[in-house]
Amino acid sequence: MTRKDIPNVISVIRILLVAPIVYFLLNERYTLSLVLFVVAGLSDALDGFLAKRYEWSSQLGSFLDPLADKLLLVSCFFVCVFIGLVPTWLFALILVRDLIVAFGALIYHFMFEEFHGDPPFSSKLNTAFQIVYLVMLIASQGLVGISPDWLGFALYSVAATTAISGLEYIWVWSLKAWDIKTKG
Description:
CATH superfamily: CDP-alcohol phosphotransferase transmembrane (TM) domain
Shape: globular
Strand content: under 5%
Oligomer: single chain
CATH class: Mainly Alpha
Structural class: mainly alpha
Order of helices and strands: HHHHHH
């Protein structure tokens, strides 16, 4: 293993943290789930920083990092719906957006050109908002008093950034595909 592999190792650790976080959430062990979730959330920022700062990015990393993010966030949102902490409509919005992005990338890749997964700013903002919302939500389960107004604001911020980032992906890929099709 070399230094270049560190961001990938961090992504794998984030993937491995999903199961215990889900387990602790399902068993209402909110302190443990919160600690592990915060570690996982911070690891997302750390692996991205290391990959960019030291040019330790790789093809594997461009797959592992978003996979780790999606596994962590979708699993946690699903469990939070299951235990009654998150409204179903928010999870549905997140899931639809993620499916649009995944299938859009596949369609673009096979119909137009090789897809390069550089997420737009709105997508990074959405991931950050989802992490912050889940931290607030888990922490509000008897650990820290968080105003329902703040939780509501965070919930609708996640909804807005989810919709905006999904629409941005559709817009950008559609324009690129149109450009390729009209020039080709």
